[in-house]
Amino acid sequence: MRRRLGSFQFVGLLNVPLAVPVLDLPPMHGVMIFGLAVGLFFAIPLFTVIFSRLVFESPMPDAMLPSLLILIAPFAVGFSAYAVTIGQVDLFVQSLFTLSLFILCVLLGRLRQPLVCCPFRVSWWAVSFPLAATSIAALRFAAADSSAVADIIALALLALATTIIAALMIRTLAGIARGELRALSS
Fold first, then answer.
1. Burial classification of residue 185, based on how many CB atoms lie within 10 Å of its CB (0-12 exposed, 13-18 middle, 19 or more buried)
2. Structure confidence at residue 144 (pLDDT)
3. Is residue 59 part of a domain?
4. Is 109 contained in some domain?
5. pTM of the predicted model, to two decimals?
């Protein structure tokens, strides 16, 4: 059986430009551009496929709604990867950032419903990475754009991500302490 590579694996290449400078290797700007180009190229069809499924197919089960926040990640991580690779915040990277903010605002409204109707599951951890990536992008944007609005957005997103990740950790640890681990993962 052949294994097919999904777009998710290619979008993960957006992490390469973020990792290369930290590894302190000889200059690998070409590798950074490769990761950025391939990651952003596959982010668009991935978003399109998921969005069309949401619009034209039957509604997702409530338990799967937290995973929708993954739609933000390619644009938020793409912002950081582009800014690190190019070394500046230009109009294109500002567009990636504002797109990630728009998608976040739309999806946060949809996440109120599962809080009421769905019990907590480990799948709720799917919100942590996109929120963290968006708050990092907001902090990078605020560092480049010295406006009060950018600072407020960055602080608000950092507070939101920190609060939600702390709540997820507390709820997970409480579930483990109560012996609910098997139920939390199903």
1. exposed
2. 93
3. yes
4. yes
5. 0.83
